Protein backbone atom coordinates (compact mmCIF):
# COMPACT_ATOMS: atom_id res chain seq x y z
CA UNK A 1 0.00 0.00 0.00
CA UNK A 2 1.22 3.53 -0.78
CA UNK A 3 2.76 5.45 2.08
CA UNK A 4 3.18 9.17 1.21
CA UNK A 5 6.85 10.08 0.87
CA UNK A 6 8.06 6.51 1.24
CA UNK A 7 10.54 5.05 -1.25
CA UNK A 8 8.49 1.86 -0.99
CA UNK A 9 5.88 3.45 -3.28
CA UNK A 10 7.17 0.94 -5.75
CA UNK A 11 6.22 -1.86 -3.39
CA UNK A 12 6.41 -5.39 -4.80
CA UNK A 13 5.05 -7.35 -7.70
CA UNK A 14 5.45 -11.09 -7.27
CA UNK A 15 5.32 -13.41 -10.27
CA UNK A 16 2.18 -15.53 -9.86
CA UNK A 17 1.06 -13.40 -6.87
CA UNK A 18 -0.30 -9.86 -7.32
CA UNK A 19 0.89 -7.37 -4.73
CA UNK A 20 1.24 -3.54 -5.07
CA UNK A 21 3.54 -2.44 -7.92
CA UNK A 22 6.54 -0.81 -9.29
CA UNK A 23 9.21 -3.07 -7.98
CA UNK A 24 9.32 -6.52 -9.47
CA UNK A 25 10.01 -9.68 -7.54
CA UNK A 26 10.27 -13.04 -9.23
CA UNK A 27 9.05 -16.03 -7.26
CA UNK A 28 9.50 -19.74 -7.96
CA UNK A 29 7.93 -22.78 -6.36
CA UNK A 30 8.31 -26.52 -6.46
CA UNK A 31 5.65 -29.07 -5.58
CA UNK A 32 7.00 -29.49 -2.04
CA UNK A 33 7.65 -25.86 -1.10
CA UNK A 34 5.96 -22.47 -1.13
CA UNK A 35 7.09 -19.79 -3.61
CA UNK A 36 10.36 -18.12 -2.70
CA UNK A 37 11.74 -14.79 -3.83
CA UNK A 38 14.58 -15.12 -6.33
CA UNK A 39 15.04 -11.46 -7.28
CA UNK A 40 13.73 -8.00 -6.43
CA UNK A 41 14.18 -4.80 -8.42
CA UNK A 42 12.58 -1.43 -9.05
CA UNK A 43 10.66 -1.11 -12.31
CA UNK A 44 10.82 2.69 -12.18
CA UNK A 45 13.24 4.48 -9.87
CA UNK A 46 11.14 7.68 -10.21
CA UNK A 47 7.44 6.75 -9.91
CA UNK A 48 5.18 8.35 -12.53
CA UNK A 49 2.34 8.82 -9.99
CA UNK A 50 2.22 9.41 -6.23
CA UNK A 51 0.03 6.34 -5.60
CA UNK A 52 -0.20 2.85 -7.09
CA UNK A 53 -2.31 -0.22 -6.31
CA UNK A 54 -3.76 -3.50 -7.64
CA UNK A 55 -0.82 -4.65 -9.74
CA UNK A 56 -0.31 -7.71 -11.88
CA UNK A 57 2.63 -9.28 -13.68
CA UNK A 58 2.68 -11.81 -16.51
CA UNK A 59 5.25 -13.63 -18.59
CA UNK A 60 4.97 -13.17 -22.35
CA UNK A 61 6.97 -14.52 -25.28
CA UNK A 62 9.02 -11.30 -25.18
CA UNK A 63 9.62 -11.13 -21.41
CA UNK A 64 7.66 -9.88 -18.41
CA UNK A 65 4.93 -7.25 -18.41
CA UNK A 66 3.65 -5.49 -15.28
CA UNK A 67 0.54 -3.32 -14.97
CA UNK A 68 -1.02 -1.35 -12.10
CA UNK A 69 -3.47 1.42 -11.28
CA UNK A 70 -1.74 4.75 -10.59
CA UNK A 71 -2.82 8.31 -9.86
CA UNK A 72 -2.92 10.89 -7.08
CA UNK A 73 -4.79 8.44 -4.83
CA UNK A 74 -7.01 5.38 -5.13
CA UNK A 75 -10.43 6.39 -6.47
CA UNK A 76 -9.25 9.77 -7.84
CA UNK A 77 -10.44 10.89 -11.28
CA UNK A 78 -6.86 10.83 -12.62
CA UNK A 79 -6.26 7.13 -11.87
CA UNK A 80 -5.14 5.25 -14.95
CA UNK A 81 -3.64 1.90 -15.85
CA UNK A 82 0.15 1.97 -16.16
CA UNK A 83 2.29 -0.65 -17.91
CA UNK A 84 5.97 -1.53 -18.14
CA UNK A 85 7.68 -4.31 -20.07
CA UNK A 86 10.88 -6.13 -19.18
CA UNK A 87 12.88 -7.28 -22.18
CA UNK A 88 14.96 -10.47 -22.35
CA UNK A 89 18.05 -8.56 -21.15
CA UNK A 90 16.19 -7.76 -17.90
CA UNK A 91 15.76 -4.03 -18.53
CA UNK A 92 12.38 -2.47 -17.66
CA UNK A 93 10.93 0.08 -20.07
CA UNK A 94 9.73 3.41 -18.69
CA UNK A 95 6.13 3.05 -17.44
CA UNK A 96 3.45 4.30 -19.82
CA UNK A 97 -0.16 5.11 -19.07
CA UNK A 98 -2.30 2.89 -21.29
CA UNK A 99 -5.79 3.78 -20.01
CA UNK A 100 -7.45 6.44 -17.87
CA UNK A 101 -10.99 6.56 -16.55
CA UNK A 102 -13.33 6.87 -19.55
CA UNK A 103 -10.54 7.09 -22.16
CA UNK A 104 -8.34 4.69 -24.11
CA UNK A 105 -4.83 6.11 -24.58
CA UNK A 106 -3.03 3.25 -26.38
Question: Notable features of this structure?
Answer:
five-stranded antiparallel beta sheet, 106 residues, 45% strand, mainly beta, 0% helix
Name the helix and strand elements from N-terminus to C-terminus, one letter apiece.
EEEEEEEE
Shape: globular
CA-to-CA gap between the ends? 27 Å
Strand content: over 45%
Mean pLDDT: 74
The number of distinct helices, counting runs of at least 4 residues, comes to 0
Query: Which stretches of 5+ consecutive residues score pLDDT under 50?
Result: 1-21
Question: What gyration radius follows from the Cα positions, in whole Å?
Answer: 14 Å
Instruction: Please identify the oligomeric state.
Output: single chain
Give the helix level as a range of percent: under 10%
Report on this structure.
There is one protein chain. This protein is mainly β and 106 residues long. 0% of the residues lie in helices and 45% in strands. The chain contains no helices and eight strands. It has strands at 13-14, 23-28, 36-42, 51-60, 63-71, 80-86, 96-100, 103-104. The strands form two sheets. The protein has a five-stranded antiparallel beta sheet, with no helix packed on it. It has a three-stranded mixed beta sheet with strand order 1-2-3, with no helix packed on it. A hairpin with a 7-residue loop joins strand 2 (23-28) and strand 3 (36-42). The radius of gyration is 14 Å and the shape is globular.
